Amino acid sequence: SAKFKSDRKQVPFPCTLNLADKIRLSGSSHGLKVTKIESDEILYVRDPEEPALVSYTDSPVTFDILRHVDHKVVFEKVLDKLASGGTLGIFPEGGSHDRTDLLPLKVGVALIAYSALDKDGLAIPIVPVGLNYFRAHRFRGRVIVEYGSPSYLDPSTLGAYQAGGSERRKACNDLIKRIEDGMRSVIVSVPDYETLQLIHTARRLYQRREYTVSEKQDINRRFAEGYKQLLLRTDGNLPKEWLSLRDRMIAYQKELSDLGIRDYQVSGLDRELQDRELPDADSVLRDMRLPYRLAHLIVVW
After folding, report:
1. Residue 66's CB: how many other CB atoms inside 10 A?
2. Cα 64 from chain centroid (whole Å)
3. Which of the 8 DSSP states describes residue 151?
4. By percentage, how much of the chain surpasses pLDDT 70?
5. DSSP secondary structure string for all residues of 119-131
6. Section 60-76 average pLDDT
7. What CA–CA distance (Å, rounded) separates 27 from 25?
8. What is the pTM of this model?
9. How many helices (H) and strands (E) does the chain have?
10. How far apart are CA 53 and CA 220, in angstroms?
């Protein structure tokens, strides 16, 4: 566990927090569960399963309070909604983040699915939905929403769930694994944002025609999977050929950024040579192209 100390005059812990509440430190998306309130100034929280999710500091830091929710009441309302034919949207990672890969899935989605089967005999479809952002940190950036094939509970596993203990954990973990596989089928899973940018660049350089959105995402996933396989087979010691290709793509990205243009506009640059060969009668058209391109860039950006 981690220990936090507060300025008693600013935030007396017993007045603002209760056991099982969570605090979310500024700059973090992960909530830390309060396990003990020792005094007005000192409280203890449970460390996250992944230490990298939270960065502790000796300096003062602000935090949000995430109130404890009675999950029993929530589950009852969720099951009533499903039983009446309703639909539930859930983020099984247990929070929002800007990473390029999945966080470990929480068990809640599996408990809901098994509870619906146990209580009402409902084998509810679990449909994976992927949110794929191209410029996640830019206002009004593009996002592609993809829907995968639904997963269904195997009714024969209900007995293991009802047995409780290790059998229930195994049944839920098996379902979570299937859900995770389904989610990975609708996202581009890579280690970091820089790799994602390289994948997008590689796909744009590879394509020789205009692809549909689903085709672009499929190629992105194939490149991402190929990169992961390359990492596995080389134990992270990437061959020189790949490193050279990576450096050239990074340089290409930087050049586009410095010029203020996008990749799809590069193919039109060779028309400058054609412009020089235009007859005098077409000089007006030639003179109009530069203002048009500038206006186009302003509108696009």
Report:
1. 15
2. 22
3. B
4. 79
5. HH-----B--EEE
6. 83
7. 6
8. 0.60
9. 10, 7
10. 27
